[in-house]
């Protein structure tokens, strides 16, 4: 194949297998992608992007411990690895380590200020801590970066409703439903939230 031919032309260069790994990952070929990342890392063991990308592939295969090892190693060799910070933060959040997740999302934002999911994820953590204004600030930031981000609209709507801003919540829930793809995990929840918010009397 063309990819193998290009790699064979520069066998000591990590970029060849790494880039093919990214292509395979985009196709959902996770095992093949991991094999390519392994080849890249055999050439350059301190390739932070390859470590982070292998972690994402392993996480996609539900190999959580191995994924966490990759994210930790990526950040050990390159503390500015925003992708590794974001995904490690997501894993911390899923496993209830809120402070560790908050720190990782903040680092992801620090080194990639256009990381909308990191802002949105940190917003959820602020909301869980009852810091609704901080949460809304992060959702606002996520939406400035990506104005078509249904999850950020939905979560901002939840925060606005908790603050008593029913009009803002209704607008956000409606916008989330308008923007979301049909197979959206939160579609039923957003539709129910919109219906309930519309039933509430204005304050």
Mean pLDDT: 94
The main pleated sheet reads as: none
Distance from N terminus to C terminus (CA atoms, Å) equals 65 Å
User: Spans with pLDDT under 50 lasting ≥5 residues?
Assistant: none
Task: Write the H/E string, N to C.
Answer: HHHHHHHHHHHH
Radius of gyration: 20 Å
- What best-fitting shape do the alpha-carbon axes yield? elongated
What is the strand content?
Answer: under 5%
| Number of helical stretches of at least 4 residues | 12
Number of beta-strand segments: 0
Class inferred from helices and paired strands: mainly alpha
Helix content: over 70%
Q: What would you note in describing this structure?
A:
It is built from 12 helices and no strands. With 203 residues, it is mostly helical. Helix 3 (30-43) runs antiparallel to helix 4 (48-60), helix 7 (98-111) packs antiparallel against helix 8 and helix 8 (116-128) packs parallel to helix 10. The mean pLDDT is 94.
């Amino acid at each position: 194949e063309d990819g193998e031919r290009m790699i064979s032309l520069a066998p000591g260069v990590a970029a060849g297998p790494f880039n093919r790994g990214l292509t395979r990952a985009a196709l959902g070929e996770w095992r093949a992608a991991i094999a390519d990342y392994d080849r890249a890392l055999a050439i350059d063991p301190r390739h932070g992007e390859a470590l982070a990308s292998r972690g994402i592939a392993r996480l996609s295969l539900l190999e959580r411990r191995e994924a966490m090892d990759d994210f930790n190693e990526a950040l050990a060799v390159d503390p500015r690895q925003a992708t590794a910070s974001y995904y490690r933060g997501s894993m911390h959040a899923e496993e209830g380590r809120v402070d560790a997740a908050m720190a990782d999302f903040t680092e992801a934002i620090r080194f990639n200020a256009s990381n909308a999911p990191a802002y949105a994820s940190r917003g959820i953590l602020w909301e869980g801590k009852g810091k609704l204004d901080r949460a809304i600030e992060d959702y606002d930031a996520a939406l400035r970066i990506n104005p078509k981000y249904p999850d950020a609209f939905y979560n901002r709507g939840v925060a606005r409703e908790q603050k008593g801003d029913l009009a803002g919540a209704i607008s956000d829930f409606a916008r989330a439903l308008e923007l979301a793809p049909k197979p959206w995990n939160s579609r039923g929840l957003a539709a129910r939230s919109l219906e309930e918010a519309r039933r509430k009397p204005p304050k």
